[in-house]
Amino acid sequence: MKVYEAIAETLVAEGCNELFGLMGDGNMSLWGALGKRSDVKITSARHEAAAVSMADGYSRTTGKVGVAMVTCGPGLTQVGTSLIVAARNKSQLVLVVGEIPAGAKNKTQTMDQRRFVEACSSRFHTITSADNMAEEIAEAFYAARVHRVPVVLNLPMDLQEQSFDWDFDYRPSTLFLPPRVENPHPDLLAPVIEKLMAAERPVIIAGKGAMAAKAKDEILALADRVGALLATSLQGKGFFAGQPWDIGIAGAFASAPSERLLAEADFVLGVGAELGYYTTEGGLLFPSAEVARIDIKPMPEEIGVIPGLYVQGDAKKAVAAINEALESRQIRKEGFRNAATQAVLNEAPHAFPTPTDGLDPRALATNLAAALPKGVLVTCGAGHFFSWPAIYMALPEGAEIQFSYQFGAVGQGLPLAVGTGVGNPGRPHVVIEGDGSMMFNLQELQTICRYNIQMVLIVWNDGGYGAEVHKLVVKGFDPALAQWDSPDFVAIAKAFGGDGVTLSSVSDLGAAVQAGLTKGGLYLIDARVSPTTASDPYAKVHQGIENRAPLLRPVA
Fold first, then answer.
1. Spacing of C-alpha 75 from chain mean position
2. Going by C-beta distance under 8 Å and a sequence separation of 6 or more, which residues neighbour residue 36?
3. What are phi and psi of 34, to 5 degrees?
């Protein structure tokens, strides 16, 4: 057995049957060994950075380790942004890379791969010998799983080609995973319980940790008991949809009524939500509130913008324990749930003028909400455009949305969506990406078509880099510096083997989405929106306009 064949065995033993990558000299033999196996599927990207983003997206929606494979040197340097995005998301990811052997005379593709990887906020594990290989690979996967961080598994090319003279015995990292501390310590819960008992205007903000723990029922019971309003982080969007005291996303994408109510809060409990800079608007969103957080991590990574109480524990079990303690004390309060709050929630939304230079992005997002089927998976890129679906697009029952905003990097949405789609076969999948971001990874449309991945792809097309356009205007510069004549994205999709339509009216969106879902494969909808309409957060932050975003309610 060759070492590269043994490495293929380890990947399968770690449960990695779906892999992403781009072939080169540094990973060719391993790729060949994996390609022989009927129990392994490899999605071959058209760019190394896209391959890593695909593995990231796959991990986010499956809970499994995402695995990508690229070659040495330039193959590795291409993936820097994607690695940092995955690190910021705390994704479980292993990137397998080749390396030019030490002492090689041809040094064209040599570099200090460790220094590059560590600069990308990722861990570097290298295989030192055939004797140590089994333990070293297991350690790499252990680190990815336990620390939730991208790990680069470095494979010297000469070592890959060596032969074993003994039987290869591999024990996967899953055999050594420590049990999670899920039950919160009573001494840590006690001050949180006291704060909830004393609070007159409590708010509970749930994040993806609460979603992963399936803690919704426990949180609803607690909120009913103490009279709390319900909110989510961006990543928890839609978690409380349909609940009468749901105020939607907290933070930069908060509605005007939500912003007013959060300003009055005297206690905020984050459940599976880190309550970071954007969720708290830099700590200014609820200035009068004390704060507590419940998270599965042993401790927060930093003090953060809003210090407060911290409890380690599973979201569901921790909230259940709080409910039990409050029940024993017969606590039940009105809290925020009164006529004054209801009046704020029932205020008529602001009437925005309809733009005349393109589709109305608010109406487009609202119509998209009505077009989404139950159980849909939505993947959304980042840029000026993603404010519209965040604020104006309600999610139907059973829907899940993934945003690629980590690291503030544009261009990540499309390849991330390939990974989320591969990880959820048979689930209807709608993707939203900006036109500028599309140009970063346009080649991956061919990957989608090559593997016949179902994707309704909506290009939110304002003919430029919208974020820069609106900032240039505020600064007194020419916005045309960040604008262009849009390419024909539908024609490009068709050239790669897909289909699509350029949207004439927002009222046509529902039929277009349904056509794409029915047809299967790649279906691109080019939605040419108004380039002069600034999103609500941009209007507030950069133009000084008071927040007028409406409270989002489920589609009737």
1. 24
2. none
3. -70, -35
How many CB atoms are closer than 10 A to CB 178? 7
- C-alpha 388, offset from chain centre: 17
Q: What does the DSSP 8-state code read for residue 537?
A: H
**Alpha-carbon distances, residue 401 vs 170, 171, 337, 428, 549 (angstroms):** 37, 35, 29, 12, 20
**In the numeric block, which tokens belong to residue 243?**
């609940």
The angle formed by the CA atoms of residues 106, 108 and 112, to the nearest 5 degrees, is: 105
* Nearest residue to 68 (alpha-carbon basis) of 24, 101, 100: 24
Q: Which two tokens stand for residue 345?
A: 């929630």
Q: Give the C-alpha separation, 395 to 386, whole Å.
A: 15
- pLDDT tens sequence across 113-164: 999 999 999 999 999 999 999 999 999 999 999 999 999 999 999 999 999 8
83 is written with which tokens?
Answer: 């690695």
**C-beta atoms surrounding 39 within 10 Å:** 7
Which residues does 73 contact at the CB level (< 8 Å), separation at least 6? 26, 100, 108, 109, 110, 111, 113
How far is CA 124 from each of CA 19, 71, 73, 81, 417, rounded to the nearest angstrom? 19, 15, 14, 16, 26
Tokens of 160: 């890959």
Q: Are 435 and 486 in contact (CB under 8 A)?
A: yes
The pair of structure tokens assigned to 199 is: 């609070």
Instruction: Kindly calculate the radius of gyration of the chain based on its CA atoms and give it in whole angstroms.
Output: 25
pLDDT for the residue 301: 81
Q: Which amino acid is at 89?
A: N
Which amino acid is residue 10, in one-letter code?
Answer: T
Cβ atoms of 438 and 486 within 8 Å: the answer is: no
Partners of residue 68 on adjacent β-strands: 20, 95
User: What confidence tens digit (pLDDT) does each residue in 295-307 have?
Assistant: 998 888 888 888 9
For the whole model, what pTM was predicted?
A: 0.95
CA dist 58 and 312 (Å) reads: 27
Nearest to 555 by CA among 341, 238, 249: 238
